[in-house]
């Protein structure tokens, strides 16, 4: 049964068919790349984009996407007994060969189990034989996947670019082998570098719940070391990613400028599990940006890494990008800037592009606390940075802190609002007004960090400290946000959890848990019920661990020596700094072998002159106005008007149509639609005008049709004078065909005659609290029945309203009606 997309919020989440998506109806191996969150969150994830491109580039292998259905769609799937399927070919997940889940966040665990249930796949690996897809997890969550271990067949630790190809080839070969034995497949998988097969380890516990032993069950397979990609310069990168129809969380070109960070912030798991530092060259970055902008039509670039300001060539790279995109149409965002990297020159470069807000992360309020966490920035650094930012014209700075860090005292906590107030005062010093928004989250100790042994605040302690901060912030007139204490509590339980938590997970999902990372869906009572049903105390997992305790993830090797982590823990308590090994001596964390694996830092360089003379900027501008008629059919009919504008904005860029832009701070492509298109209505008669440079109508039609997705097509293109009247006031009437499945043709005929025999049929609408009246009879030019179809021509008014007026059908009864806009009648122009 097809999905009813009109009855759910944001149908574009489930449509598929976006530009850049790849559908391979025939494939030897079908892999579902599953992101356990809603579409707009998952689509923003770079890792999944990378794997999608790598796998789809292989012959015979199809990589498809699946996201967690939002509760409205989940209800529909359950009610209609429809199995969760991929977006590309609607293949039910149970019929794929591999399902690869991205493990980004502890609380998305419930979404994983929910998705398996929606796909009618047995949850536990032990209950799935070779006829079921192989279930694999990857991403940061794979460094302690123990709470998920019984549900997964394998996990991949570390960089995925090479490993996914090996895994895919291995499974493909196994599929065609004579003995399709799952155990054999797992054996083979365990031989792939970085692959962890949890069923090959047996965990034993002490009576008090601590792990007593992790027994390897396969000779020689005693620990799993993460996979390393020594160099990202030549690694595959998605320069032609999928362009979503709807707005996603990070709707822009994302270029990874570096992987790994060697700053050594002691709380930061990413800083340890992604080591060593591997930078991409500015030449390669520029090339990727150019290709990606061309292929996607995006107008924003995001330079990604754990700390983009640390990228060795950030200054020259920004200068080059600014020069290349001096027309202001492309914005550049740097989501992760470290306070110490904010030189006046860098701020000056950033100032030249759109100001998308500035976030600084001092992480802790006091100098002492920052020494404990090895943050390596002083109050003076922060205040100078803030002064420069305000002086450059920003009006608002977001400050990000953590509370509950190891050894935190009341004075350390008090220092957060005090520091934030000083930052705000910098705005006045810069000669203007400025805001500070303070965000404080609760520290959650993470595996593979020096703080993995430390305790986490209890729920009550967290709430008390949040109340304290709230009062202090209010007194200082600072905007303050904090993370929900209950979410941090549960995040902490699962971050350092063991396999026994699998029962709790399964239970809480049975009780209805899903989207637990979203405040509005998280329910602490439901979780406590699940813990109580399983006889486990969640608070026990927040405790301090003895440094000689066997940790549930000790057999998983992130490359960092445990002795190094212990030394770092001692140094934290001694408030001693550990220098960044990119600039100074190696601190012997254990990751590098200094042959294949070492920090790869690109050489500092002067400003590239590649883009200094932007020829385009000096070109004489030719203006032409093209009038296009286009169709929208199939799933494209579910797009909102804004989503359609977005689609054209991307398509003109991808198709190389020289679209002209409006002037001003936020230039927009100059096209205008005759009417706002209606969601759910198929059409052969949508009209738009676009202003372009040197390109004629035939060429524009061909260029656009080459890149537009299925379901949308330019049918006609003509050129009109630049000053031609806009289309909207020229519309006289619109023709529609309404198909009413199963409707009695004779009755319909009679109702048409009856309706046309009336002089008037007044509809009263309520719109934004205002009453509107419209005489539908007077607006109806033509009306006839053709079998179970209505053919009608109407001036003002909606086709569905007229259908209801003619037939007397109620909105619910009209849900199955298919509306097609067949043509538009214009006054002569
Ligand atoms: S081994 Fe040394 S150089 Fe390599 S990441 Fe660790 S501390 Fe830095």
UniProtKB/TrEMBL annotation:
It comes from the Bacteria. Residues 247-481 form the Radical SAM core domain. GO terms for molecular function: catalytic activity; iron-sulfur cluster binding. Gene3D superfamilies: tm_1862 like domain (3.80.30.20). NCBIfam families: rSAM_fuse_unch (TIGR03960), sam_1_link_chp (TIGR03936). This is Radical SAM-linked protein/radical SAM family uncharacterized protein. It comes from Trichlorobacter thiogenes. The lineage of its organism: Bacteria, Pseudomonadati, Thermodesulfobacteriota, Desulfuromonadia, Geobacterales.
């Amino acid at each position: 049964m097809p999905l009813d997309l009109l009855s759910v919020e944001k149908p574009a989440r489930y449509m598929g068919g976006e530009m850049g998506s790849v559908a391979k109806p025939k494939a030897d191996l079908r892999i579902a790349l599953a992101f356990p969150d809603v579409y707009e969150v998952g689509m923003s994830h770079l890792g999944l984009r990378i794997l999608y491109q790598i796998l789809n580039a292989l012959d015979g292998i199809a990589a498809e996407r699946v996201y967690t259905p939002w509760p409205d769609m989940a209800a529909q799937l359950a009610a209609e007994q429809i199995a969760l399927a991929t977006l590309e070919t609607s293949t039910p997940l149970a019929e794929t060969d591999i399902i690869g889940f991205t493990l980004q966040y502890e609380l998305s665990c419930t979404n994983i189990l929910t998705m398996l249930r929606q796909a009618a796949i047995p949850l536990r690996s032990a209950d799935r034989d070779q006829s079921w897809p192989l279930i694999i997890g990857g991403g940061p969550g794979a460094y302690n996947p123990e709470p998920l271990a019984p549900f997964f067949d394998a996990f991949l630790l570390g960089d995925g670019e090479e490993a996914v190809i090996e895994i895919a080839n291995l499974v493909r070969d196994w599929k065609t082998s004579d003995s399709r034995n799952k155990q054999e497949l797992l054996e083979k998988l365990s031989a792939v570098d970085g692959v962890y097969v949890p069923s090959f380890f047996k965990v034993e516990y002490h009576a008090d719940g601590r792990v007593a032993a992790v027994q390897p069950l396969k000779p020689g397979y005693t620990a799993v070391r993460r996979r390393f990609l020594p160099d990202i310069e030549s690694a595959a990168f998605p320069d032609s990613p999928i362009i979503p129809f709807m707005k996603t969380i990070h709707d822009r070109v994302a270029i990874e400028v570096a992987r790994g960070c060697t700053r050594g912030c002691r709380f930061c798991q990413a800083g340890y599990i992604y080591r060593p530092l591997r930078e991409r060259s500015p030449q390669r970055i520029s090339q990727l940006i150019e290709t990606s902008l061309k292929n996607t039509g995006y107008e924003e670039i995001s330079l990604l890494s754990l700390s983009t300001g640390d990228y060795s060539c950030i200054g020259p790279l920004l200068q080059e990008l600014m020069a290349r995109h001096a027309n202001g149409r492309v914005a550049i965002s740097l989501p992760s800037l470290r306070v110490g990297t904010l030189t006046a020159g860098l701020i000056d470069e950033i100032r030249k592009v759109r100001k998308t807000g500035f976030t600084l992360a001092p992480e802790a309020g006091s100098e002492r606390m920052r020494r404990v966490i090895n943050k390596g920035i002083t109050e003076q650094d922060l205040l100078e940075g803030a002064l420069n930012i305000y002086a450059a014209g920003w009006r608002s700075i977001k400050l990000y802190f953590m509370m509950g860090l190891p050894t935190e005292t009341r004075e350390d906590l008090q220092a957060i609002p005090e520091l934030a107030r000083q930052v705000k005062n910098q705005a006045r010093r810069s000669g203007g007004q400025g805001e500070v928004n303070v965000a404080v989250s609760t520290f959650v100790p993470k595996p593979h960090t020096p703080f993995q042994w430390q305790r986490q605040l209890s729920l009550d302690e967290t709430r008390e400290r949040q109340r304290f901060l709230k009062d202090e912030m209010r007194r200082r007139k600072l905007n303050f946000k904090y993370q929900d204490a209950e979410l941090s509590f549960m995040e902490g339980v699962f971050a350092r959890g063991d396999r026994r938590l699998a029962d709790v997970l399964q239970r809480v999902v049975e009780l209805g848990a899903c989207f637990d990372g979203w405040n509005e869906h998280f329910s602490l009572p439901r979780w406590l019920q699940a813990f109580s049903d399983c006889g486990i105390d969640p608070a026990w997992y927040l405790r301090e661990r003895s440094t000689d305790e066997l940790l549930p993830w000790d057999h998983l090797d992130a490359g960092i020596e445990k002795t190094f982590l212990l030394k770092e823990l001692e140094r934290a308590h001694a408030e001693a700094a550990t220098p960044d090994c990119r600039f100074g001596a190696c601190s012997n964390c254990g990751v590098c072998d200094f042959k294949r694996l070492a920090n790869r830092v690109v050489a500092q360089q002067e400003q590239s002159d590649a883009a200094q003379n932007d020829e385009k900027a000096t070109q004489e501008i030719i203006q032409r106005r093209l009038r296009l008629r286009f169709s929208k059919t199939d799933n494209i009919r579910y797009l909102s008007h804004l989503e359609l504008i977005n689609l054209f904005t991307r398509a003109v860029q991808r198709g190389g149509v020289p679209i002209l832009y409006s002037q001003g701070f936020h230039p927009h492509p100059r096209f205008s639609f005759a009417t706002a298109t209606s969601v759910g209505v198929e059409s052969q008669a949508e009209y738009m005008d676009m202003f372009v440079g040197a390109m004629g109508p035939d060429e524009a039609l061909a260029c656009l049709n080459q890149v537009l997705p299925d379901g949308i097509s330019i049918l006609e293109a003509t050129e009109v004078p630049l000053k031609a009247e806009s289309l909207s006031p020229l519309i006289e009437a619109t023709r529609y065909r309404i198909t009413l499945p199963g409707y009695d043709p004779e009755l319909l005929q009679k109702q048409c005659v009856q309706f046309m025999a009336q002089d008037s049929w007044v509809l009263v609408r309520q719109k934004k609290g205002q009453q509107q009246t419209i005489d539908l009879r007077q607006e109806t030019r033509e009306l006839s029945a053709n079998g179970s179809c209505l053919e009608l021509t109407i001036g003002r008014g909606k086709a569905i309203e007229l259908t209801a007026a003619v037939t007397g059908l109620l909105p619910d009864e009209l849900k199955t009606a298919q509306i097609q806009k067949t043509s538009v009648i214009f006054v002569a122009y």
